[in-house]
Design a protein that fits this description.
Elements (H helix, E strand, L loop, with lengths): L1 H10 L2 E5 L6 H16 L3 E5 L27 E5 L11 H6 L2 E6 L10 E4 L6 H11 L6 H15 L4
Parallel strand pairs: 1-2, 1-3, 3-4, 4-5
Helix pairs in contact: 2-4, 2-5, 4-5
């Protein structure tokens, strides 16, 4: 599965990254951290949110794009921190129209709705799953991406409590 995800990322030119509706710190840190890694690889990558993020955590979603119903076609769509496809809201159309789909999550209840799923229910945050996956598979994680993943982990772990 890890190799398949890496292959899908490497083959894709355009990648959409989506997180759940009413995005929290883990959702935003995961999505925007992953986007940073993808941009660093030279990919065309974009995050779409369902609504503007809460003012308290908006700093995680630099240049946030709120999905307005426009038609989008991507080679790959990666859903992060999203237990079910329904939690994508209106953006499920982006997920459904992508050539290939991946879900990276930490919710035990995830029904494995993507073409390829990386779900680790014992992890405290999706950011932790993504960071570990990227590190273990040779992806370069710059300081900005690392900070975003850290914020996601801190958010969902209650500051590591």
């Amino acid at each position: 599965m890890a190799e398949k995800i890496k292959e899908m990322i490497e083959e894709a030119e355009s990648i959409a990254v989506l997180c759940h509706i009413n995005a929290d710190g883990d959702a935003l840190g995961s999505a925007y951290g992953l986007k940073e890694v993808l941009l660093q690889m030279g990919k065309s990558a974009e995050c779409f949110l369902e609504e503007r993020p809460n003012r308290r955590i908006a700093f995680l979603a630099e240049n946030a794009k709120v999905y307005g119903g426009e038609k989008c076609k991507f080679d790959l769509c990666i859903a992060v921190d999203t237990a079910t496809k329904e939690r994508l809201g209106a953006r499920s159309i982006i997920f459904d129209s992508a050539k290939k789909t991946v879900c990276i999550d930490h919710h035990k209840s995830n029904p494995l709705y993507a073409d390829v799923n990386l779900v680790k229910g014992s992890y405290c945050a999706a950011a932790e799953v993504i960071y570990e996956y990227l590190k273990d598979n040779g992806f370069e994680i710059n300081e900005k991406a690392a900070r975003l993943f850290y914020c996601g982990i801190m958010s969902d772990s209650g500051c590591l409590k």
